[in-house]
Amino acid sequence: MLSNSILLNSMDGTIRDLAALRGTYRLIPETNDAIRLIFTILQDAGVRKVNILLDEPVSNSGRLKARIADIAEEYIFELDIRILREVDRVLYEKENVITSDSIILDHCSSWINFAAQCPDLKKTGLFKVW
Predict the structure, then answer these.
(1) Taking the domains of the chain in order of start, what are their residue ranges?
(2) Rg (CA), the chain
(3) What is the full per-residue pLDDT of the chain (130 aa) written as tens digits?
(4) I want to staple 61 with a disulfide (CB 3.0 to 4.6 A). Which of 10, 51, 54, 88 is the partner?
(5) Closest Cα partner for 83 from 124, 51, 108?
(6) Cα–Cα distance, 32 to 53 (Å, whole number)
């Protein structure tokens, strides 16, 4: 969204992009802004604890964890960031999962459509879906 890429409004109500991670990820200039946007929305919603699970096999997950932890110091909620080998399987058993990964959505106990719950995203003018 912050990179002005195309976003798709999917039939299940989630918003998806066309980025194919395929086990690779790199920090980009928009990473810090994206983390702050997510954290600000969660804090404004009164969330007291945030659990972030990152895939160990994905490159740069350690760097992303460190970046998230640094930025999180600006916020008042409790944060637990973990790098796990099988994030999907862990999320299958969880409630209130925030993801747009359809496989996880099909298996988890419950999920929150984060983009749909955040009207401020649309106000930014960055939220353009096809």
Answers:
(1) 7-123
(2) 14
(3) 777 777 788 888 888 777 655 556 778 888 898 899 899 989 988 999 999 999 888 888 999 999 999 999 999 999 999 999 999 999 998 999 999 889 999 999 999 988 776 655 555 555 554 4
(4) 54
(5) 51
(6) 17
Backbone CA torsion sign across 7, 8, 9, 12: negative
DSSP letters for 42-68: HHHTT--EEEEEEETTSTTHHHHHHHH
Closest CA to 115 of 11, 38, 36: 38
Q: Please answer whether residues 105 and 99 qualify as being in contact, where contact means their C-beta atoms are separated by less than 8 angstroms.
A: yes
**Hey, which residues does 53 pair with through a beta bridge?**
82
- Bridge partners (DSSP) of residue 97 are 111
